[in-house]
Design a protein that fits this description.
The protein is α/β, with parallel strands linked by helices. It has one domain: 3-Layer(aba) Sandwich (Rossmann fold), CATH 3.40.50. Helices cover 42% and strands 17% of the residues. An 8-stranded mixed β-sheet has the order 1-2-4-3-5-6-7-8, with helices on both faces. α3 packs across α4, α5 packs antiparallel against α6 and α5 runs antiparallel to α8. One of its GO terms (molecular function) is monoacylglycerol lipase activity. Keywords: Hydrolase.
């Protein structure tokens, strides 16, 4: 019998805190683990329509080495919703404000999907603030109309009518293993999407799926080539947004980037195979290989 998966079970026994910080006027929710006084800072950024719980299986392992922060990005989760379409510059500005709020001049930044897009842009625009960079099934390198429409359809259906079925469909789309029900993740996200006004917030999040808006935010060879931070591009065998070749292409544009593929995972390798992800991630961040 399959073991029941629970967000709380993933965090039980882990010294962590949940709270809110003021990031230049934006009330920002976070999960934090690890000594904030004497360890380097690591910030974990989730994907479109996501929230900090994307990293519940990674906090414990990383807290041994880093002051580890998983945030609800601008307009997401329980963080303030600005009420306008969100482009990459807005997320980067918010990330810099978070670093200021926690007193971090520099940080390692690891992002999944949208979070990877934001992390890459932050490394380009603020090289003095990003130490090591991880792009995990990252967006921002292409505009695939079919994928963009799929994201809009699933996301808006879940936000406009956050039933068990619509939210579960959005969660299962992230995963390679469709046989699991992901009940606890579904319940967590359903609570997020049931907040008053969240459908409007989701429309603002979906701005980057609009072809014109996306085009002016995309990263190309010049942008990726300007990244100076040591970079790991992490891809998966079953990512629903882009194939392994696209991940390899991104890595080829970043000077000295390392490229890794995790088999048997979809868009959330940090959750689906946390043990492998944590090993690869920590080896890179700690310069062990």
């Amino acid at each position: 019998m399959a073991e029941y998966e629970s967000v709380w079970s993933d965090l039980q026994g882990v010294p962590f805190e949940q709270g809110y910080l003021d990031a230049d006027g934006v009330r920002t929710r976070y999960l934090h683990a690890g000594d904030a006084d004497d360890r380097p800072v690591l910030v974990l950024l989730h994907g479109s329509g996501g929230h900090a719980e994307a990293y519940v299986r990674n906090l414990e392992a990383h807290a041994e080495h880093f002051s580890t922060w998983a945030i609800d990005m601008l307009g997401h989760g329980y963080t303030d919703k600005p009420g306008h379409p969100l482009e990459i510059s807005h997320y980067v500005e918010h990330l810099m404000a978070v670093l200021d709020a926690i007193g971090a001049q520099r940080a390692h930044v690891s992002g999944e999907s949208l979070g990877g897009w934001v992390a890459a842009r932050a490394a380009i625009d603020h090289p003095d603030r990003v130490d090591r960079l991880v792009l995990n099934t990252a967006g921002g390198s292409q505009a695939d109309p079919e994928v963009m429409q799929r994201i809009i359809t699933l996301s808006m259906a879940a936000a406009e009518n956050p039933s068990w079925e619509t939210v579960q469909a959005r969660i299962k789309w992230l995963m390679a293993d469709k046989s699991k029900d992901y009940d606890d993740l579904v319940a967590s996200r359903q609570r997020v999407y049931r907040q008053p006004g969240f459908a409007a917030a989701m429309r603002d999040i979906m701005a980057l799926q609009d072809p014109q808006i996306r085009a002016r935010n995309l990263l190309g060879p010049a942008e990726y080539g300007a990244i100076t931070a040591p970079t790991l591009v992490l891809w998966t065998s079953d990512d629903p947004t882009a194939d392994v070749d696209e991940g390899r292409r991104i890595a080829s544009m970043i000077p000295g980037a390392r490229f890794e593929v995790m088999p048997g995972c979809g868009h959330w390798p940090q959750y689906e195979d946390a043990k492998t992800f944590n090993r690869l991630h920590l080896d890179f961040l700690l310069g062990r290989s």
